[in-house]
């Protein structure tokens, strides 16, 4: 990938690596960084970013074992906040509730067979308790000062084609939910846990209900909900990764802010359209840095600016696992945004002052407003 060659060249400058003819620059970069002290490596790349605020999704698998917690990141002089991943919170709540049934061999029949009335009643009771606890947990999280957003990975757990409330038996008044819609889905979860020993919510209707619950709680507490869209791993169904599928969901919750992540690449145009017609939709154009080539990044930003209001575009690094990912996500985004806005100014379609304002909105002010960060830009940052 061209993006990899570019990343190696940019990292080599920070590390002071000069390419030796006949050797892989990437291997030289890896050797240099592997020889560095851990704290030195983190400081070298994180402090070079000039980032004022880090919003961390600490529900990513493996974070508790392999990463520092959100408070640790304040060492870089950043205001650091949390993003709560709703599916992970739901799994933590659901597993203990299912333990009595998991211990009962008679309850674990073949999932292809019909569920007996006794078990169905048990599952319905569990669902009532589960969603009560989920409601409490999400509400408590939304009210914590360190939490600035929820996040859904529904894109990884079946897709973004989430049905509207009316098709799922979810009551608008929150008093007459039809839990019978979810029983079969919960039984599939139960059987999956029995067979694998772990809980992973990717079972249709129950996942849809969880997303609806989070959207309602978020709207009631005035915090946004991020959605993974587009760009991801091999376990995503690309067919169901377009935010266009979310239109009915967006209509269901006009008071809740939706943040579409990763520029929805390769569905950026669809995401921009949604931003243009729904007041409650924002577009985050992270992760394309450094995942795609420089020319690809510029193309994506052009698509973002085609129709998306400039007060609704948010930059992020999507940095994770390695401090280098924060650095690359920062410098490449700034360069791509500068290149595209410069083109537009030279074409006579924007004044320079307007281009500067757009850059300031995308890199700072829009996120400050959406996530209620209550910070001012530090113009004295050295990076």
From TrEMBL:
Name of this protein: Amidohydrolase 2
Transmembrane regions listed in the UniProt entry: none
Gene source species: Lentinula edodes (Shiitake mushroom)
SUPFAM superfamilies linked: Metallo-dependent hydrolases (SSF51556)
Protein's UniProt keywords contain Hydrolase: yes
InterPro entries according to UniProt: Amidohydro-rel, Metal_Hydrolase
GO terms of molecular function: hydrolase activity
Domain Amidohydrolase-related per the UniProt entry, residue ranges: 214-349
Keyword 4Fe-4S: no
Taxonomic path: Eukaryota, Fungi, Dikarya, Basidiomycota, Agaricomycotina
Keywords for this protein: Hydrolase
């Amino acid at each position: 990938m061209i993006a990899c060659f570019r990343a190696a060249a940019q990292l080599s400058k920070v590390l002071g690596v000069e390419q030796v003819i006949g050797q892989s620059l990437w291997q030289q970069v890896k050797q240099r960084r592997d020889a560095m002290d851990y704290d030195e490596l983190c400081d070298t790349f994180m402090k070079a970013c000039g980032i004022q605020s880090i919003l961390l999704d600490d529900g990513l698998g493996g974070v508790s074992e392999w990463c520092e917690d959100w408070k640790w990141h304040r060492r870089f002089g950043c205001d650091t906040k949390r993003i709560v991943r709703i599916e992970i919170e739901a799994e933590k709540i659901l597993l203990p509730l299912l333990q009595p049934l998991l211990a009962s061999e008679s309850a674990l029949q073949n999932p292809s067979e019909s569920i007996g009335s006794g078990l169905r009643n048990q599952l319905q009771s569990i669902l009532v308790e589960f969603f009560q606890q989920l409601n409490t947990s999400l509400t408590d999280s939304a009210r914590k000062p360190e939490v600035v957003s929820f996040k859904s990975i529904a894109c990884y757990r079946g897709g973004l084609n989430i049905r509207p409330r009316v098709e799922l038996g979810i009551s608008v008044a929150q008093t007459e939910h039809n839990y019978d819609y979810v029983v079969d889905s919960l039984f599939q979860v139960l059987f999956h846990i029995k067979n694998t020993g772990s809980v992973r919510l990717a079972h249709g209707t129950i996942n849809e209900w969880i997303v609806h619950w989070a959207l309602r709680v978020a709207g009631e507490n005035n915090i946004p909900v991020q959605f993974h869209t587009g760009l991801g791993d091999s376990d995503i169904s690309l067919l169901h990764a377009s935010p266009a599928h979310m239109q009915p969901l967006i209509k269901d919750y006009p008071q809740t802010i939706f943040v579409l992540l990763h520029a929805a690449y390769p569905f950026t145009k669809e995401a921009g359209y949604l931003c243009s017609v729904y007041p409650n939709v924002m577009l985050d154009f992270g992760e394309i840095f450094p995942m795609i080539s420089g020319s690809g990044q510029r193309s994506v930003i052009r698509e973002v600016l085609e129709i998306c209001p400039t007060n609704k575009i948010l930059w992020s690094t999507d940095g994770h696992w390695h401090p280098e990912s924060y650095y690359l996500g920062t410098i490449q985004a700034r360069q791509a945004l500068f290149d595209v806005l410069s083109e537009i100014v030279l074409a006579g379609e924007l004044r320079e002052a307007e281009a500067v304002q757009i850059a300031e909105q995308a890199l700072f002010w829009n996120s400050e407003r959406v996530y209620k960060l209550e910070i001012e830009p530090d113009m004295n940052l050295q990076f």
